[in-house]
Amino acid sequence: MRPRVIFNSAMSLDGRVKKREEGVDFLSRLDRYRTHELRGSVDAIMVDIETILDEDPELGVRAPEEREPYRIIIDSKAEIREEAKILCGDGHKILVVSKDAPRKKLDKLKKIEDLEIITCGEFAVNLSELMDRLYNIPIRRMLLEGSGSLVRRMFNEDYIDELYIMIVPTLIGRGPELFEKNLDREIKLDLDGIFQYGDQVVLHYLVRR
């Protein structure tokens, strides 16, 4: 058994995921609100260390205190900065590392309040083992955010169940793409809904199995 995983992201019409371009907000106020609502509906929010290092997100949530989700950071080598916003915020955090993570760094991180450290895998986080452990916490619904290698691994290993993709009406022309490298397999999707927020559109897909 494993948690049901929802992937949430936004991209421009040319497939870019950069959130700011020349000082203009990439996401609208309404989509930020939608994302907060989605975060508040799950048991956990998972991101990778690439997203933390690039964006330093807080992963804020609009939800009752009793629905405060776990924040899960996948960080094989324990590269996260001790002052990262996600570690300084409220709520329970889980840092997932491999056995290759440096002991000295882990000893420092263990002093951070509300931070639990889980070790899965030898040199990289073992997602299969992690999913089992998260389900036993228990975590039943989990939101995946970001656009780095973790997202690609989650798709390749068939852990994604549904997607929300916000299409932003702009052409950026450069910057990171939703998938920087090819997926290992074709993933078929079924459209479940289309939502419009002004000029922006959200596509909701279910992964076909």
Summary, kept brief:
The chain has 209 residues and is α/β, with parallel strands linked by helices. The chain has 6 helices and 11 strands.
Strand count: 11
Q: Poorly predicted ranges (pLDDT <50, ≥5 residues)?
A: none
- Superfamily (CATH H level) name: Dihydrofolate Reductase, subunit A
The biggest sheet, with number of strands, parallel, antiparallel or mixed sense and barrel status, is: 9 strands, mixed
Task: Name the overall outline.
Answer: globular
Regarding CATH, which class?
Alpha Beta
Query: What is the count of helical runs?
Result: 6
**Arithmetic mean of pLDDT:** 89
CATH architecture: 3-Layer(aba) Sandwich
The succession of helices and strands, N to C, reads EEEHEHEHEHEHEHEEE
Radius of gyration over alpha carbons? 17 Å
Helical residue percent?
10-25%
Q: Key features?
A:
209 residues; alpha/beta; Dihydrofolate Reductase, subunit A; nine-stranded mixed beta sheet; two-stranded antiparallel sheet
